[in-house]
Structure formats: structure tokens, C-alpha cells
């Protein structure tokens, strides 16, 4: 029920929602002041605030609305989305989970709740949510994309590739989906298809460093059996270096160095790998490749030091993976937990160590790599 100009407006609930959804943010705020007890107006005001980027206010109004109507799934959902935007992830998870329990089937709920499940290292729960979401939103490319990432975490690479291909079909101009498809093909050891998918990403976003990086990775594998791919791979790496974000650049340095090493250009490789090792001290591939490059240019003492460090880091990484697996099946093993926390802190992975210390075994991101 709405009160408009002092008169009670007896319209059906869908009509009332339609009318509210067409009001400006200022008008909704005015209506909320006039009718502070209306959960319906609180919902629409919270949605408008969320769209305007005023997340704290959106959360407050949605939260207050759930007090008025505790079984309103959509109010729980909007509160969860606002908490997610505020980076309050545990709180967001609780609100969104309750919205789902109350029957909310909105597309945004599936996207955000599935993403939170993946962040909690629950790839199986994430995939179940996305499969359910796709029963209601069959043509939503983002749901297919996230499902592809989830299947990859479960090492279901064929299903991952199929889900990502569906996302690409539905949104052929979205580079993220083609990048994901390229990674899925690489997981299946199909570099030609991976290169083709990455080429589609490059065409959709010519200045996207990640798109160029994935194309370079695929072409570097093809270059082992195809001479023409060598020049194409190097050109792609150069474009990846040009457009890489600060977070992506160390991975490009590492893989470009590996490529140069394979092309018997160890002196050039050593410089890029040196940068990669400095930026990624825990990266076993970068350390091993750097040691090999140093050895090939006659810097044996440095090579021995780098390779010894590689062995130490590699052993620690294997132990961390073992302890993470151990805590999945024996979460009360406190000795393993303490050892895992110590090793994670030695590796500089303090956020993961804090997570494990709070008995959230294993740490986020402990599962198999996703595309």
C-alpha cells in the first residue's frame, strides 16, 4: 500500500513496485521520510542508493527493511549486495545466504553469492549455486562464465571449457569470457584453440594486457612445433608488456623470460626472469627458469644460489599444499594448523595465515588454479 498525496493508493503489489522503480532517488528519499514504516519504499530506496554508489546508506535502509519484513528475501539480498560493495565479505555472505534461503532467485544474488563461495574455497558449493541460477537465468553469460571458472577449480576442464564457450556465445564482445576460454583450452593442452580464443579477446579489447598475455602464452606453446608462431608469440609478449597492469606484469616477465630461454636467448631471458623473481619470490617457475638462464650464460655461482632458493621455496610450497589438504579432511588437527600458519607467514601470505588461524581451513585460493 502506498500513500500518494495524502490518499491511499490501492494498487496491486507489482504495480506499486513498478511505480516505485520509476521514481528518482530524491523522490524515494522523500517518500521514505513520509512513510518510514514502508518496507517497500525502503527496498526501492536501497536499490537506488546502491546504483548511486552510496553503499553504506543502501545497507542501512535494506537492513532496517528486514526488521519490518523479516521474510522479505529481496531486502536481505540488497543488504548483502551493499555489504559486498563495502568489502564486508563475511557479512555479505550471511545476508545473501539468508536471502537465498528465503527464496530469492535474482541473478545478482547468484553472481555474488557464488563468487563469495569461490573466495571461501568452496568451488563445489559455488558450482551448485550457479547451476541452480542457470535454471532461472539460462541466457546470462556471467553465470556461465563463473560456472566455467568453478569447474576449472574442480579440475573438470572439459565442462569448464563448455561453460566458458557458452558465455562467449552469449556475449561475444566481452574479452573476459574469451580470456577464460583461452585458459580452459590451455588446461586441456589445446594451444591452437587457446590462441584463437585469445585472438577474439584481443579483437574485443586491443589494449587489454591480459588478452595479449593469454595469446602470447598460447602462441609460445605453438612455437615449439611451428616456426611461424615464434615471431607471433614474441610480438604478442611485447604487446602484453606494453599494456600489462602492475599486477599482471610480473607474470608476463616470467613467461616472456621462459619463452626467450626456449628460443636459446638466455641473456635476454635472464633480465626478464630477474625482474619476475624479484616481484614473485614464491614463484617456483620463475626461480627455476632464472637459475637455468644464469647457468647458460656462465654465472654458475649465482645459478647455484638461485636454484638452492628454488628448492627451498618448492619444498615449502609442497608442504603448504599438503597441510591445506590435510586440514580439509582433519580440521581439528591443531599441529598441522600451527605448522601451516607458520609456513604461510614465512612465505609472506599473511592474509591466508590469518584465515587459517581463525580455523577457516584451508586458506582462500588454496584450490587448483582457475582460468
Number of domains: 4
What is the typical, i.e. mean, pLDDT?
91
CATH class division of the largest domain? Mainly Alpha
Total number of beta strands: 2
Order of helices and strands: EEHHHHHHHHHHHHHHHHHHHH
Shape: globular
Number of helices, counting only DSSP H or I runs of 4 residues or more: 20
How would you describe this protein?
This protein has helices spanning 13-21, 25-34, 39-51, 55-68, 73-85, 89-101, 107-119, 123-136, 141-153, 157-170, 175-187, 191-204, 209-222, 227-243, 249-262, 266-279, 284-296, 300-329, 334-346, 350-357; strands at residues 2-4, 7-9. It contains 20 helices and 2 strands. It is globular. Helices cover 74% and strands 2% of the residues. By secondary structure, it is an all-alpha fold. The chain folds into 4 domains: 7-104, Serine Threonine Protein Phosphatase 5, Tetratricopeptide repeat (Alpha Horseshoe), CATH 1.25.40.10; 124-190, Tetratricopeptide repeat domain (Serine Threonine Protein Phosphatase 5, Tetratricopeptide repeat, Alpha Horseshoe); 209-298, Tetratricopeptide repeat domain (Serine Threonine Protein Phosphatase 5, Tetratricopeptide repeat), CATH 1.25.40; 313-356, no CATH class. The chain has a two-stranded antiparallel sheet. Helix 3 (39-51) runs antiparallel to helix 4, helix 7 runs antiparallel to helix 8 and helix 11 runs antiparallel to helix 12 (191-204).
Amino acid at each position: 500500500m502506498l500513500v500518494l498525496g495524502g490518499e491511499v493508493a490501492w494498487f496491486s503489489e507489482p504495480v506499486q513496485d513498478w511505480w516505485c522503480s520509476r521514481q528518482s532517488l530524491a523522490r524515494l528519499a522523500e517518500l521514505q521520510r513520509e512513510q518510514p514504516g514502508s518496507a517497500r519504499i525502503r527496498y526501492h530506496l536501497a536499490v537506488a542508493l546502491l546504483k548511486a554508489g552510496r553503499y553504506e546508506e543502501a545497507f542501512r535502509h535494506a537492513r532496517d527493511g528486514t526488521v519490518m519484513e523479516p521474510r522479505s528475501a529481496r531486502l536481505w539480498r540488497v543488504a548483502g549486495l551493499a555489504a559486498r560493495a563495502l568489502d564486508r565479505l563475511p557479512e555479505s555472505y550471511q545476508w545473501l545466504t539468508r536471502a537465498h534461503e528465503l527464496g530469492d532467485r535474482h541473478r545478482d544474488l547468484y553472481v555474488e553469492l557464488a563468487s563469495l563461495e569461490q573466495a571461501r574455497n568452496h568451488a563445489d558449493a559455488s558450482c551448485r549455486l550457479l547451476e541452480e541460477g542457470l535454471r532461472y537465468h539460462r541466457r546470462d553469460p556471467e553465470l556461465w562464465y563463473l560456472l566455467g571458472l568453478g569447474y576449472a577449480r574442480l579440475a573438470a576442464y572439459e565442462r569448464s571449457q563448455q561453460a566458458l564457450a557458452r558465455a562467449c556465445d552469449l556475449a561475444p564482445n566481452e574479452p573476459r569470457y574469451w580470456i577464460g576460454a583461452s585458459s580452459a583450452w590451455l588446461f586441456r593442452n589445446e594451444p591452437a584453440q587457446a590462441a584463437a580464443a585469445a585472438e577474439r579477446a584481443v579483437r574485443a579489447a586491443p589494449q587489454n594486457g591480459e588478452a595479449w598475455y593469454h595469446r602470447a602464452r598460447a602462441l609460445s606453446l605453438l612455437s615449439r612445433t611451428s616456426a611461424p608462431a615464434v615471431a607471433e608469440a614474441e610480438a604478442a609478449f611485447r604487446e602484453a608488456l606494453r599494456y600489462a597492469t602492475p599486477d599482471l606484469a610480473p607474470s608476463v616477465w616470467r613467461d616472456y623470460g621462459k619463452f626467450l630461454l626456449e628460443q636459446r636467448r638466455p641473456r635476454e631471458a635472464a633480465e626478464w626472469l630477474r625482474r619476475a623473481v624479484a616481484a614473485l619470490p614464491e614463484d617456483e617457475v620463475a626461480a627455476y627458469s632464472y637459475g637455468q638462464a644464469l647457468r647458460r650464460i656462465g654465472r654458475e655461482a649465482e645459478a647455484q644460489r638461485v636454484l638452492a632458493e628454488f628448492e627451498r621455496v618448492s619444498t615449502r610450497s609442497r608442504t603448504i599444499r599438503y597441510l591445506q589438504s590435510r586440514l580439509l579432511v582433519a580440521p581439528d588437527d591443531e599441529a598441522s594448523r600451527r605448522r601451516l600458519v607458520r609456513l604461510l607467514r614465512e612465505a609472506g601470505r599473511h592474509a591466508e595465515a590469518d584465515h587459517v588461524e581463525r580455523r577457516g581451513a584451508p586458506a582462500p585460493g588454496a584450490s587448483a588454479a582457475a582460468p
